[in-house]
Write a structure and sequence with these properties.
Length: 332
């Protein structure tokens, strides 16, 4: 497994990681046993970067990882990232954002307990709280580094301008953003800012929530996910159009003798050395397909064929609904 540096002075981690949102029912039903099988397979493949959050299943994802780590002999075998900054009303489920020191520290402490570790390698602010300047939040996070609770920090779904403001206060190890052949907005400033600052660009949903795989979602599997069921790219008529258009990559993958997911991951890894995809999956076998992308060498001709199959702007529908867009920073 090839390695990439997570932040200018950060650790070397596997070129792809595992996004642990799939350890909950976010994309459909799963079990702790299935999630543990994914983690065991990750270690067999040399994948050592694990990404979770306090709100994934309201702590479930972290508890699943924690139970796996308790059964593992020796120090944690993963570079672990988690997040905080989103509040959910227990009665209505409504989201709000809180980047105060008190909230972030209390949530971090709860995450450490669920994970069963004393320190996390990377701690993200999951969504920015517009009421608090990012410089102030960065100072808070730098304080957590000094106390030893975290080794580095980052931000999720922020604009390049916000990254530069934060980096002027303290080095930012990583920015997390949706990035794939279907979502290419990071190329309009975020990739470039990360390269200039030495910040890792951790790409979530690198296979477009399953569209860029050999077994894309069906109407039935979409209905199982509260998120996908209202996401514009998975509601009609856009869903059918996206299945039709993404079939071009599936055809190309067959011609090249590779899994479609591996081809999508390989393309992303060739964009920039700063990019570290974190696909999520409920299947150990699918993780093997994804991991194969880290070993594929794409020629310039290969990359051109991929982009000809799925040119910029091919995806139908926005990547988020109006409600889902509350929180991420738009910058283009």
């Amino acid at each position: 497994m090839q390695k990439r540096r997570l932040g200018a002075d950060g650790p070397l981690v596997s070129a792809i990681g595992v996004g642990a949102m799939s350890f909950t029912a976010f994309y459909g039903p799963t079990t702790e046993e299935a999630s543990h099988a994914v983690l065991r397979t990750a270690l067999e493949l040399g994948i050592d970067h694990l990404d979770t959050s306090n709100v994934y299943g309201m702590g479930l994802s972290e508890r699943v990882i924690g139970s796996f780590l308790r059964d593992h002999r020796g120090p944690p075998p993963f570079t672990i990232a988690t997040k905080a900054g989103i509040r959910r009303d227990p009665e209505t489920g409504a989201r709000s954002f809180d980047n105060s020191r008190a909230h972030l520290e209390s949530e971090l402490d709860a995450s450490l307990e669920r994970l069963g570790v004393e320190t996390v390698d990377l701690f993200y602010v999951h969504r920015r709280d517009p009421a608090i300047p990012i410089e102030e939040v960065t100072e808070t996070l730098a304080g957590f580094v000094q106390t030893g609770k975290i080794r580095s920090f980052g931000y999720s779904e922020i604009a390049p301008s916000s990254l530069r403001r934060a980096a002027a206060v303290h080095p930012v190890a990583a920015v997390q953003s949706e990035y794939s052949l279907a979502t290419r907005a990071p190329e309009l400033g975020l990739v470039q800012a990360c390269e200039a600052l030495g910040t890792g660009l951790v790409a979530f949903s690198p296979v477009a929530r399953g569209l860029l795989t050999d077994r894309p979602p069906t109407a039935e599997t979409v209905a199982e996910s509260a998120f996908l069921a209202v996401n514009p790219r998975f509601t009609e008529p856009d869903f059918s159009a996206n299945l039709e258009h993404s079939s071009r990559l599936r055809q190309l993958a067959r011609e090249m003798g590779q899994p479609t997911a591996a081809l999508a991951i390989a393309w992303l890894l060739h964009v920039s050395e700063q990019v570290i995809p974190i696909p999520g999956t409920r299947s150990a076998d699918h993780l093997r397909e994804l991991a194969k992308g880290a070993s594929l060498e794409l020629s310039l001709e290969d990359q051109a064929r991929i982009e000809a199959a799925l040119p910029v702007g091919w995806a139908h529908g926005d990547r988020y609904s109006a409600q889902q867009w509350i929180g991420p920073e738009r910058y283009c």
